[in-house]
Amino acid sequence: MGQGIEIREAHFPGRSGIDAYGNGGFRFADMSHRGSILCLPSGIYGWDAVEGDVLDIKLFERVLAEAADIEFLLVGTGLSIRPLPAELKTALRGANVSSDPMSTGAAVRTFNVMLAESRAVAAALIAV
C-alpha cells in the first residue's frame, strides 16, 4: 500500500525577501507560511515561536548553528519591541552575531533592505 501523507518540516531552501506579513503569517518566494519563520543563510524555516513567548536560547539553536555565516540577526518580536534576554544576547555576541530586536514589521523591512545589499543578515520573525 501507499505510505500516506508525509509531513515535512516547513523549509524553503534559499534566500528570499519577505513579500508580505500579517494575518498570522508571511509570504515569500510565491509561497505563504502560517506562523513564525527563521530566515537563515541555508533557507527559510517554520519557527515555533509566538508573540509573548520567552525568547530563550533554545528557540535560537538553529540560528546559533549557522552563526558563522551571520553578522546581523534581526528579531521581529511581534507588534511591539521586546528586549532580548541577556543570556541570548551573550550567546549571539559570543558567536560574533549582532542582534537587534524590533517590531516584526520593522524587522521585515530591514531584512529586505539588508538582503538586497547582500549583507550577512538573518531574521527571526514572530508572526503578527
Low-confidence runs:
none
Number of strands: 9
Question: Average pLDDT, to the nearest integer?
Answer: 93
* Total of helices: 3
SSE-based structural type: alpha+beta
- Characterize the biggest β-sheet: 6 strands, mixed
Question: Can you give me a brief rundown of this structure?
Answer:
By secondary structure, the chain is an alpha+beta fold. It is built from three helices and nine strands. It has helices at 61-65, 86-94, 104-116; strands at 11-12, 20-22, 25-28, 31-34, 36-40, 43-47, 72-76, 98-102, 121-125.
Report on this structure.
- Pfam families: DUF498 (PF04430).
- This is NADH dehydrogenase domain-containing protein.
- This protein has 128 residues and is an alpha+beta fold.
- The protein has a single domain, classed as MTH938-like (Hypothetical Protein Mth938, Chain: A), CATH 3.40.1230.
- It is 21% helix and 30% strand.
- The protein is built from 3 helices and 9 strands; from the N terminus they run ββββββαβαβαβ.
- The chain has helices at 61-65, 86-94, 104-116; strands spanning 11-12, 20-22, 25-28, 31-34, 36-40, 43-47, 72-76, 98-102, 121-125.
- The strands form 2 sheets. A 6-stranded mixed β-sheet has the order 1-6-5-9-7-8, with helices on both faces.
- A hairpin with a 2-residue loop joins strand 2 (20-22) and strand 3.
- The radius of gyration is 14 Å and the shape is globular.
- The termini are far apart.
- The mean pLDDT is 93.
In terms of topology, how is this protein built?
Blueprint: E1 11-12, E2 20-22, E3 25-28, E4 31-34, E5 36-40, E6 43-47, H1 61-65, E7 72-76, H2 86-94, E8 98-102, H3 104-116, E9 121-125
Parallel strand pairs: 7-8, 7-9
Antiparallel strand pairs: 1-6, 2-3, 3-4, 5-6, 5-9
Protein name: NADH dehydrogenase domain-containing protein
InterPro entries: MTH938-like_sf, NDUFAF3/AAMDC
Pfam families: DUF498
